[in-house]
Amino acid sequence: MADVILSINAGSSSVKFGLHHAGRTGWPSMMASGQIKSSEDGIRLVARDAEGGTALDETVAGADPDAAYERILAWAEDLARPGRLAAVGHRVVHGGTAFTRPARLTAEAVAAIEALTPLAPLHQPLGLKPVRAVAGLRPDLRQTASFDTAFHSTIAPEAARYALPRRLETEGIRKYGFHGLSYDYIAHRLEERWPGTAATRTVVAHLGAGVSLCALEKGQSVDTTMGFSVLDGAVMATRCGSLDPGVILYLLEAKGFTPEAIEHLLYYRSGLLGVSELSGDIRELFKADTPQAREAVALFVRRVAREVAVMATSLGGLDRLVFTGGIGENQPGIRDAVCRRLAWLGLAVDPDRNSAAVERIDTPDSRVEILVIRTDEEIVIARDAARLLAG
């Protein structure tokens, strides 16, 4: 019986993959997880098994992504044993209003996803590359898509609408929200870990190269900080976050920027990189300790804290704050600084627990639970694929 799913998660800063046994109930079980990395010699493929041992460590010569995906597929087929690789599941950032749940990737579905590229010009092509590669390499292997925007389809119309003429909303200009696979995993993890607490007013802060926050009520999204695009909300590695639209008009009219130049500025040259004039990697900014680097970190903290307060407003209060994502999971200094700015809401971090990166890091007298939970988007992709195949 074919019951193994290969998940591919192509993001803006990395490509991750995972191999999972599709269980009949609950989460699939992880067999191995890995990452595609660029190296001087070509494309390096690194994966570890469920026990942390090396499952794959090879370099594919050259820069041909199809060669890398061919090797990953062969590795997955070998590890799964002949005939047991059931499907490849993919993360797709934008599903628009058409894809509000996972979908099988037929030719028609792929065309519809590609048509959404203007809504996510940076991410949509990245998500479709492995889809096309797998289709060319294994045309008979089933493929599925899990959409980041789908989790936020529960947001009420008044929270998803911009104060623009309604005809523009009918043309697709509205809040969509992103990082949905991460929030999906966290929502289910919270219910598993603390059953019966779904009504707890929870804000999840997904802090990585991309940054967004989500207000959860009964495990569903009621608001989020990213909107029409992944440029909105908090400061990110190379993206500016929320910006006065007048700045765009000024750059166009007074500074002679072309739309292409503005796109490059907002996606690749702003955020931590733009303010620090050094790097979009917060680890590098901590090491540099220049005035510009310190200001970039301070701006990042201020904006994240502000967005927590905005999400708490949508919930009518705050009972639980969850940190996840590469920065949220691995930078205790950022967690502490964000919570200090939110002390007026009753947040208090235990420094010893925070530095130890245990699951719960608040003090006994904190009025808000503060958690650190490692997200797992690949297992959500595998779960969605298994459900689609079973249905």
Automatic annotation (TrEMBL):
<dbReference type="GO" id="GO:0006085">
    <property type="term" value="P:acetyl-CoA biosynthetic process"/>
</dbReference>
<dbReference type="GO" id="GO:0005524">
    <property type="term" value="F:ATP binding"/>
</dbReference>
<keyword id="KW-0418">Kinase</keyword>
<feature type="site" description="Transition state stabilizer">
    <location>
        <position position="179"/>
    </location>
</feature>
<dbReference type="GO" id="GO:0005829">
    <property type="term" value="C:cytosol"/>
</dbReference>
<feature type="binding site">
    <location>
        <position position="91"/>
    </location>
    <ligand>
        <name>substrate</name>
    </ligand>
</feature>
<keyword id="KW-0479">Metal-binding</keyword>
<feature type="binding site">
    <location>
        <position position="377"/>
    </location>
    <ligand>
        <name>Mg(2+)</name>
    </ligand>
</feature>
<keyword id="KW-0808">Transferase</keyword>
<comment type="pathway">
    <text>Metabolic intermediate biosynthesis; acetyl-CoA biosynthesis; acetyl-CoA from acetate: step 1/2.</text>
</comment>
<keyword id="KW-0460">Magnesium</keyword>
<feature type="binding site">
    <location>
        <begin position="206"/>
        <end position="210"/>
    </location>
    <ligand>
        <name>ATP</name>
    </ligand>
</feature>
<dbReference type="GO" id="GO:0000287">
    <property type="term" value="F:magnesium ion binding"/>
</dbReference>
<comment type="function">
    <text>Catalyzes the formation of acetyl phosphate from acetate and ATP. Can also catalyze the reverse reaction.</text>
</comment>
<dbReference type="Pfam" id="PF00871">
    <property type="entry name" value="Acetate_kinase"/>
</dbReference>
<dbReference type="GO" id="GO:0008776">
    <property type="term" value="F:acetate kinase activity"/>
</dbReference>
<keyword id="KW-0547">Nucleotide-binding</keyword>
<feature type="site" description="Transition state stabilizer">
    <location>
        <position position="239"/>
    </location>
</feature>
<feature type="binding site">
    <location>
        <begin position="326"/>
        <end position="330"/>
    </location>
    <ligand>
        <name>ATP</name>
    </ligand>
</feature>
<keyword id="KW-0067">ATP-binding</keyword>
<comment type="subunit">
    <text>Homodimer.</text>
</comment>
<feature type="binding site">
    <location>
        <begin position="281"/>
        <end position="283"/>
    </location>
    <ligand>
        <name>ATP</name>
    </ligand>
</feature>
<dbReference type="InterPro" id="IPR043129">
    <property type="entry name" value="ATPase_NBD"/>
</dbReference>
<dbReference type="InterPro" id="IPR004372">
    <property type="entry name" value="Ac/propionate_kinase"/>
</dbReference>
<keyword id="KW-0963">Cytoplasm</keyword>
<dbReference type="InterPro" id="IPR023865">
    <property type="entry name" value="Aliphatic_acid_kinase_CS"/>
</dbReference>
<dbReference type="InterPro" id="IPR000890">
    <property type="entry name" value="Aliphatic_acid_kin_short-chain"/>
</dbReference>
<feature type="active site" description="Proton donor/acceptor">
    <location>
        <position position="148"/>
    </location>
</feature>
<comment type="similarity">
    <text>Belongs to the acetokinase family.</text>
</comment>
<feature type="binding site">
    <location>
        <position position="16"/>
    </location>
    <ligand>
        <name>ATP</name>
    </ligand>
</feature>
<feature type="binding site">
    <location>
        <position position="9"/>
    </location>
    <ligand>
        <name>Mg(2+)</name>
    </ligand>
</feature>
<dbReference type="GO" id="GO:0006083">
    <property type="term" value="P:acetate metabolic process"/>
</dbReference>
<protein>
    <recommendedName>
        <fullName>Acetate kinase</fullName>
        <ecNumber>2.7.2.1</ecNumber>
    </recommendedName>
</protein>
